[in-house]
Amino acid sequence: MDPFIILVICLSCLILFSLWNGSHARRKLPPGPTPFPIVGNTIQLNTKDLSKTLSMLAKEYGPVFTVYLGMKPTVVLHGYEAVKEALIDRGEEFSGRGTLPVVEKVTQGLGVVFSNGEIWKQTRRFSLMVLRNMGMGKKTIEDRIQEEASCLVEALKKTNASPCDPAFLLTCVPCNVISSVIFQDRFDYGDQKFQNLIKYFHENFKILSTPWIQLCNTFPFLQYFPGIHNKLLKNINAQRQFILEKIKEHQETLDINNPRDFIDYFLIRMEKEKHNQQSEFTMDNLVITTWDIFSAGTETTSTTLRYGLLLLLKQPEVSAKVQEEIDHVVGRDRSPRMQDRSRMPYTDAVIHEIQRYTDLVPISVPHTVTQDIQFREYLIPKGTTILTSLTSVLHDDKEFPNPEKFDPGHFLDKSGNFKKSDYFMPFSAGKRACAGEGLARMELFLLLTTILQHFTLKPLVDPKDIDITPVNKVLGSVPPSYELCFIPA
């Protein structure tokens, strides 16, 4: 028989089986748009702004619905009630990590972000313990942030109020803070290795937020073709090599009775469990866990700051009110401290609104259910991918009137006091919430107040002409590049 005819018959059978199998599975899952064979609903989704497409589908199918990414059913949770019920009320059942094949090529199921089961539980528990020992959320880490903030101020002064792109300098601070926790070391801003690391962080975040990566995660075979994913893998491998060099240095100087940083703590644990064949504390896991913490502790905070300054350039009256509050509470003669935050409700509201408005991780990292469950009136099989729309929570129009408008009033009551909101979930929620939330919130407050204490932000164009639309909004919201002048206050 002609090979072409055999191929056509095989493809036809595959399509028919896909249709039958998909129809059978869809009877138990939440409703959703009818998928096409093989490609599922992929061609119906806006790959440049997936959260917008999901919001449109939620209007038609409700807060819990199913889309097919390729042949893979994915349950979407849209809105505060559905997200809270899953991630908080039933956190254990929804605590599995979904697959991102492009990244898994590197992580191999290790670390704290993309791992599952016992590896995830032990690594996360250990990492949180060590981070607390290293001063996370305490005065010691606050001191480190203040020291880096002072270095940032000096670097910004050297711009001499000339136009500059703040991306690099805004990344230096969180990168050095987390470096001091992981490596017990900070880098000079002019260090070439340091500059390369920051370049990799920026590139990785941009690449991960492109439609192409979304397609590669949906159709993993695309990874065998040329594409920007290869640049991502090259960058990550370079970062891993840097981490391996640091680990080697630590091994040569390790004192098991005097751990200096995260790597030391991990190496000591490895030594204690070296005869345990089932131990999760291996060299491979150390490398990936360090990369997880290093990446998460750098790029998310720096991108939020970068987006935050852009929003303040767009609305100079907001930054003027923050500066007024800084002058009143902190003054010019000392550095801002975390204890000042309770007396600075407007500044606190602005920082919360920056995080809410920028919606840095619109759909969070995918979850899976860890067992067969009944969720509301639907049956969701073990291992089903779950997408949680954080956009639908952060931009809920009942909780935040006019959610598409940047308005610090979303977090202020009628008396001007700071107002908390359960809908504030930029770090996700539940058992998979960001482990570094406390550090990130501390950095955002101390860095933003320090910058505005010393400088007035001057745009290069009329504020009304500033474009604040993200370049991409897939895995992350990538702000547009811009320049500004830091005018000494």
From TrEMBL:
<dbReference type="GO" id="GO:0005789">
    <property type="term" value="C:endoplasmic reticulum membrane"/>
</dbReference>
<keyword id="KW-0256">Endoplasmic reticulum</keyword>
<keyword id="KW-0472">Membrane</keyword>
<dbReference type="GO" id="GO:0006721">
    <property type="term" value="P:terpenoid metabolic process"/>
</dbReference>
<keyword id="KW-0479">Metal-binding</keyword>
<comment type="function">
    <text>Cytochromes P450 are a group of heme-thiolate monooxygenases. In liver microsomes, this enzyme is involved in an NADPH-dependent electron transport pathway. It oxidizes a variety of structurally unrelated compounds, including steroids, fatty acids, and xenobiotics.</text>
</comment>
<dbReference type="GO" id="GO:0006805">
    <property type="term" value="P:xenobiotic metabolic process"/>
</dbReference>
<keyword id="KW-0492">Microsome</keyword>
<feature type="binding site" description="axial binding residue">
    <location>
        <position position="434"/>
    </location>
    <ligand>
        <name>heme</name>
    </ligand>
</feature>
<protein>
    <recommendedName>
        <fullName>Cytochrome P450</fullName>
        <ecNumber>1.14.14.-</ecNumber>
    </recommendedName>
</protein>
<comment type="similarity">
    <text>Belongs to the cytochrome P450 family.</text>
</comment>
<dbReference type="GO" id="GO:0016712">
    <property type="term" value="F:oxidoreductase activity, acting on paired donors, with incorporation or reduction of molecular oxygen, reduced flavin or flavoprotein as one donor, and incorporation of one atom of oxygen"/>
</dbReference>
<keyword id="KW-0503">Monooxygenase</keyword>
<keyword id="KW-0732">Signal</keyword>
<dbReference type="InterPro" id="IPR008069">
    <property type="entry name" value="Cyt_P450_E_grp-I_CYP2D-like"/>
</dbReference>
<dbReference type="InterPro" id="IPR036396">
    <property type="entry name" value="Cyt_P450_sf"/>
</dbReference>
<dbReference type="InterPro" id="IPR017972">
    <property type="entry name" value="Cyt_P450_CS"/>
</dbReference>
<dbReference type="InterPro" id="IPR001128">
    <property type="entry name" value="Cyt_P450"/>
</dbReference>
<dbReference type="GO" id="GO:0020037">
    <property type="term" value="F:heme binding"/>
</dbReference>
<dbReference type="Pfam" id="PF00067">
    <property type="entry name" value="p450"/>
</dbReference>
<keyword id="KW-0408">Iron</keyword>
<dbReference type="GO" id="GO:0006082">
    <property type="term" value="P:organic acid metabolic process"/>
</dbReference>
<feature type="signal peptide">
    <location>
        <begin position="1"/>
        <end position="25"/>
    </location>
</feature>
<keyword id="KW-0560">Oxidoreductase</keyword>
<dbReference type="InterPro" id="IPR002401">
    <property type="entry name" value="Cyt_P450_E_grp-I"/>
</dbReference>
<keyword id="KW-0349">Heme</keyword>
<dbReference type="GO" id="GO:0005506">
    <property type="term" value="F:iron ion binding"/>
</dbReference>
<dbReference type="InterPro" id="IPR050182">
    <property type="entry name" value="Cytochrome_P450_fam2"/>
</dbReference>
